[in-house]
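Students often ask why we bother encoding 3D structure as a string. The short answer is that it lets us treat folding as translation between two languages. Here is a chain of 191 residues written in the first language.
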Amino acid sequence: MVTRRELSAALERQLAVLGVTLKPGGAAAMVNLKLEEVASQMGMRPQSVLQYFTVEGMQELAQSTARGLKEHEAVEGTRADSVITTDEAGLLVPVFALAARVGLLNGDRDVAADLCEVAAAVGLALRNSPPTASTAQLQRGVEWAGFVAEQLGTGAWTTDPAHPATAEQDVMLAAHLRTDLDAIESWLNAP
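And here it is in the second language, the structure alphabet:
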């Protein structure tokens, strides 16, 4: 039987052949998600469905992933940039910075780094005249911050890992974060 590590290495090799590079650990995360998806469909544990996966099968996963990424990039390339007012920037930067901090406190450095990148892009956009930022990048930031709000709201994450008794405050913060994200989404999706 093949191991997760072997499947991850095979997927990473196949994606490289197709010109797709992932963040460190990205292939392993994709393999784990696929295992969990199949296990859920079959009513089994992820470890039990490992027997149905092969190194050769990773080629199909790599091809569908590469195709999906290319389609996503094509759609993103057609979106116009968003003009950002200082009021909007005043909402964007703290929301993304707060979500990044919560992500980092809970050990998700990727979410934190991605949100910091979006917050920095907003700050840099204010130097332009008129200030514009990538709508696709802002929408990704909203998605990542939404993930953080969801984790806080369900109790999976906390704002203070050293004192987990802050659950009620975390739920309130998640609700405020979601409200701010809804406001951001409404002006991003406005015609």
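Translate back mentally: The mean pLDDT is 85. Keep this in mind for the problem set.
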